[in-house]
Specification:
By secondary structure, the protein is mostly helical. Helix 4 packs parallel to helix 18, helix 5 runs parallel beside helix 9 and helix 15 packs antiparallel against helix 16. It is globular.
């Protein structure tokens, strides 16, 4: 070893070699990156720019409509709610409203209707309308598959089996029976008598052009039952004209409803008043409306109704006249709109009955004052 030369261990020389190799690798990578940089820039320019996320809209308002409640129900439950048409409450209203008319007319002069009875009949209307729709779909499941508007019904679409539908029907009828058993014996027997109409109505479209008449006899049974639930029996001088008026009303709105499906009905071979009346539909509907208003006037006179009641009857007549005049029987969407508007007809009459009954008290007080002053 030379004198004055620094001493370097063997490991240090090996470390320097590794460092030099690493630096050489970085240098080569840097050169390759600089060489490829123009191509990378061109590729980046060709990529679409990412759009900023759209701002969230206002929160959806909370809705308690029947359709929204059914949509929010658990998945396994939803087909059953659709089977009983809970998402389409128009039919339930049309079944319930004749009950309210009868309960209102049966109230004592100057008094409001029995709210407990109105609530009881409301529950019964939901259950019996659901049971009726279930029976209808059981009878019509093969027909429903051939009609665009009904092909999505749970039975036709295969979401529920026939056995499950029968079990569900049994549950609905059992609950409806519980409601019926809350009434007096006369009303229990009267209510049970309507079950034959509920079961046979869906068959009528196969054998007669007047299934809407049978539906009217079924749907307006509450016009008899409401009065008997209050008084223990029917006053036929009031109940029969009221029932007749309800049947005429059903012939109006369900004939309009039937015009939605008339083309499909011809193809699959079922009957309806829409096919019976054809282009003469408006004349028939005008006749039914006149008969309805006449029956309401007779019922009002037989239970001493007053000015607000007859004002409501006039409003009902005007509403029906407007429906018929503006109806386009060849537009299904217009037929549905007119059909659904009949809830307003029923509510108008109920309000008139309540106000007319309260007016009776005012009239009786006016009569009593001169008698007391003598």
């Amino acid at each position: 070893m030379r004198c004055g030369a620094p001493h370097r261990p063997a490991g240090s020389a090996a470390g320097d070699g590794k460092m030099a190799a690493l630096l050489a690798g970085f240098t080569r990578a840097s050169c390759r990156f600089h060489a490829a940089r123009p191509a990378l820039v061109a590729a980046a320019a060709a990529l679409p720019l990412r759009c900023p996320a759209a701002p969230l809209g206002p929160p959806r308002p909370l809705s308690f409509s029947a359709a929204e409640l059914v949509r929010a129900a658990p998945g396994p439950l939803r087909p059953y709610l659709h089977l009983m048409r809970l998402h389409q409450p128009a039919g339930t209203w049309l079944l319930y409203l004749p009950c309210t008319w009868s309960i209102g007319l049966a109230a004592e002069p100057g008094c409001l209707p029995d709210w407990h009875m109105l609530a009881l009949f409301g529950a019964g209307a939901v259950l019996m309308r659901g049971a009726g729709c279930t029976i209808n779909d059981l009878w019509d499941r093969d027909y429903d598959k051939q009609v665009a508007r009904t092909a999505g019904r749970p039975l036709a679409a295969g979401e529920i089996s026939t056995f499950q539908s029968f079990v569900f029907l049994g549950g609905q009828l059992s609950l409806a029976l519980c409601v019926l058993l809350c009434l007096n014996y006369y009303s229990i027997i009267l209510g049970a008598a309507s079950l034959s109409l509920v079961v046979t109505y869906p068959l009528m479209k196969r054998i007669t052009y007047w299934p809407q008449l049978v539906l009217g006899l079924t749907f307006n049974w509450g016009a008899l039952l409401g009065w008997s639930a209050i008084h223990g029996s029917c006053d036929w001088s009031v109940c029969l004209p009221l029932y007749f008026s309800g049947v005429m009303w059903t012939l109006v709105y369900d004939t309009i409803y039937a015009h939605q499906d008339k083309r499909d009905d011809i193809v699959i071979g079922v009957k309806s008043t829409a096919l019976k009346f054809k282009e003469d539909t408006k004349q028939w509907l005008s006749g039914f409306s006149t008969a309805m208003v006449s029956g309401l006037c007779v019922a009002g006179m037989n239970c001493d109704q007053t000015f607000p009641y007859y004002s409501a009857v006039a409003a009902v007549g005007a509403h029906l006249a407007y429906q018929i005049y503006t109806l386009d029987i060849d537009k299904p969407e217009d037929c549905w709109k007119k059909f659904a508007s009949n809830r307003t007809v029923g509510v108008l009459l109920f309000v008139g009955i309540v106000l007319g009954n309260l007016w009776k008290r005012k009239n009786s007080e006016t009569v009593e004052e001169p008698l007391e002053s003598r």
